[in-house]
Structures are given as structure tokens and as C-alpha cells.
Amino acid sequence: MAITLPKAPRKKRGDVKSSTKNRLVVTAGKKGTQSTKKIIQSTMPISINSSETLSKLQASLINAEKLHLKGQLQEAWAQYQEILHQDPSHYAAIHGMGLIAAQMKSYQMASDLFNNAIKIDKSNPRAYNNLGNVLSSEGKYQLALNNYDKALSLDLNYVDAIKNRGIVRAILKQYEDALGDFSKVLELQPGYWRAHIYTANVLISMGKLHKAIHAYDLGLAANPNSAALCNNLGAILCSMGRFKAALSKLDRAVKINPQYAEAFNNKAVALIGLKRESEAMQSYDQALMLRPNYQDALVGKGRLQASMQH
Prior knowledge:
The protein is mainly α and 310 residues long. Helices cover 65% and strands 0% of the residues. Helix 3 packs antiparallel against helix 4 (107-120). Residues 1-6, 11-23 and 29-46 have low confidence and may be disordered.
């Protein structure tokens, strides 16, 4: 299936904004924040298939994928294009270009490329999974689910597709189905600690905070050095008024990652709950030193200053 070679997509800049409606912030990782009332939408990783059958273009493909994995996207794109000049129906090259387009947020181009890859090889679940990720990024959640289901019809235990389907189901408030997906992920990969975060966030949305704490505890047992898990546990404990227990987790979070602005913000909330206002002010200052325009910390500090003046 020949395709017209597209130009490389231009990289777009954009910062993930945090919510200013709530002072507590839970995170799915190093980037991105949302309030405890919302499910964390984790960035969906897109897998690269390097299992292409050996051919005269194999060396070029290996080089393109190495460049891709190193983040040298323009160079990788050019290498993929060179492969397509020689073999316009080269599945891995088309798929690789789709990955780059998705990374650049050129979603229409990515969809076209993944659809072309599917036309060439309908038996490979990766293109369906990655097309689902693109559709999800565009807010086309039902179409995304359809593609995850197609991927899973080809590989019932394809963990990425199960996890991604669970995330979309959670967005659509199909909570029980989402929990089922995350449970399946943990069954297949018990060490995949992020699945505990996804589970906990669904449970938060369902109002089942004690079960969410248990899910986070399981994640922390699997990954004791996760600052994000410590922060999220602290945020939930704060929301339940358990400030002393929360402070312990948040202290651990900032010890693991001293650059964690969200954890310093949440630590300030815990300290306010313990009537330790001066220390809370210091924690807000630390958060703002790391992120000067951090709205949650700015609002929290302003409220604290106003209360201390009365």
C-alpha cells in the first residue's frame, strides 16, 4: 500500500496546567497535576515494534528506531522516509512515522499513518493500540475503545492496550470496567506499579477513599522510592483530615524528590491542618521557588497570609 510521504510534523510547545480549584494535588508521575476529585490521565506510552522480518532495509530500520528512541525525531523521520522511498509499503517505517507524529501532537497525520499501517498488516495489534491513543488524545473516546478492543482481539494479553482501555473507561466514568482492566494488568504484570495509581484514582472518583489508600499502599510496596505515590497518599490523607499521617508521606516524597513542587504544596496543607502555620508558609515558599507561577501554591499562600493577619 503506497502512501504519499508527509513532511515532518512541527514540534508544539505546551505546559500542563494544574488545577487552582483545590489545594491538594495528586500526580501520575513527574509531569501533570489534577485535583483529587479527578482521575489522573496518564500519558499513554506508545510502543515501538522492532520485530520487522530481516530484509535489505533492516539496517536502516534499526538505525531509524535507535534515533527515535534517543529522541532524535527529525533524524528518525528522515530515515523512515528514506525507507519508504525504497519500499512504500514498509509497515515498520509507516508505523514509526505515526509514532513521531503522535509525539508531536500532529494527531490527524498520526491517524493517517496508523491507518495505513493497519491496511498493510491487519494482524499487528500495535497500530490499533497506538491509533486508539491518538483518538483518545483528540477526545474521541469511543473510537479509541474500539481500537483497543481490536488490538486485544489480536492479542488478548496485550498489557498496553488493556491499560489504555482502562484509562479511557475511567474518563468515561465506566469505573467498574476500568477497575477490571487495571486488575488484569496487575495479573499479567504484578510489578507494574502505575496500575495501582490508576486503580486508586478510579476509587477516589467513586468516593472509596479507604480502598484508594490501600491501592496506593500496594503501589508503594511495589515501588518504595516513588515520590508520586507518597505525594498521592499524602493528598488523600489530608483530604480525610489525617494530617499527621499525611505529613509523614509528604516528607518522604520531598526527600525522594527535592524538586517536587506539588509535594511541598501538599505538605503546606498538612502543616496548616496541624496548626503549624509558619512551617506551612516555608513549604509554600519552597513550592514557589521551584515553580514561581504555581497557582495552587500562590492561592494557598495568600489564604494563609490573610488568616495569619487576623
